Amino acid sequence: MTKSILISGAGVAGAALAYWLRRHGFTPTVVERAPALRTGGYKVDIRGAALQVIERMGLMDAVRARSTDMRVVRHYDARGRQVATMDAALFGGRQGDDVEIMRGDLNELLYDLTRDEVEYVFGDSVTGIADDGTVTFERSAPRRFDLVVGADGAHSTVRAIAFGEESAYARHLGHHVAICSVPDLLGLDREEAVHAAPGRTANVYRTKGDAGAKALFMWRSPALSYDHRDLPRQKELLAEAMAGMGWQVPALLAAARDADDLYFDALTQIHMDRWSKGRAVLVGDAAHCASPASGQGTSLALVGAYVLAGELASGGGVEGYERVMRPFAEANQALAPSNLKGMVIASRLALWFQLRMIRLLPHLPGRDRIVERVAGAIHRAATAVDLKDYPA
């Protein structure tokens, strides 16, 4: 029976998987390239089936205590005039018990839940996986494992080793995104401020308890060629993409130049015919990245970790894991293209129409039906899996 399992990546998928594997009697080890737990990041949603996973982990109260508590989204024109407001939950497509939390806060909760029972190795990375399960590392001595799990994101090292180049599985969605910490220039209080122009959107938000703010930039763009570790070049590309925008965008770009936590990437999905090969299996974004445009990456990671550990423990193995997860992953990946149309507006006419609809929404007789159209598709995708109760 598979007992010793290496997990590459200490993010949401990796830490959640470590918890469930330990619960089922496995011996997981987590290796993470970063020198310490990644505590930064942006706000993420936990919805549908993922809420069941959080509940079964005993983390629901802690997650809700760290909710972002966002209240309102305000839209501004290029001259800085407020032109529309929107409820933050509706803006994020949240319904019912859905909860929004900072990714770093969720990472900390998962790590604290596992750190005393799971071996974490920081500052190292997998370099090879042999047929007999021997794994080589950048810094550590080789070790043998029964299974190696790639929980290391859309640019997965494990996937590259076991399956080949990322280009064979990545589908560019025609947009790029950049997110970083910035000073709170607007005096926000659980608010999000947005300025959109054709093909480009900039926003900044401050969540409950945050001393600063986060800026997010999204724009239409073909695939770009750059080094993922070249932070200065990424800042140049961001400045070029946002050049000429009004409102607070120049000030936000100036702050972004000084940020040391910039996340810059293409909006990309990962599509694979299979998620396991030999001693390797993939989970979370490494297997089926839906892109931030789906709003479901974190939920997919939580559910995937739960299902993979449960299927390994119950005898379903990686085949059972793929059988349960694939329809769920595909349903959530399908959200991204339509969501993007509302996140980055293609034309001035479409932008005018969107802002007018936001202003009129509270007064429309069919408001509930309109809200259902906005949030209903996300809710249906978030609940498109029946979670088994895997005995521990």
From TrEMBL:
Pfam families per the UniProt record, alphabetical: FAD_binding_3
UniProt cross-references to InterPro entries, sorted A to Z: FAD-bd (IPR002938), FAD/NAD-bd_sf (IPR036188), FAD_aromatic-hydroxylase (IPR051704)
Source organism (scientific name): Nonomuraea pusilla
Positions in coiled-coil regions: none
Protein name from the UniProt record: 2-polyprenyl-6-methoxyphenol hydroxylase
Signal peptide (residue range): none
Domain FAD-binding: 5-314
Annotated SUPFAM superfamilies: FAD/NAD(P)-binding domain
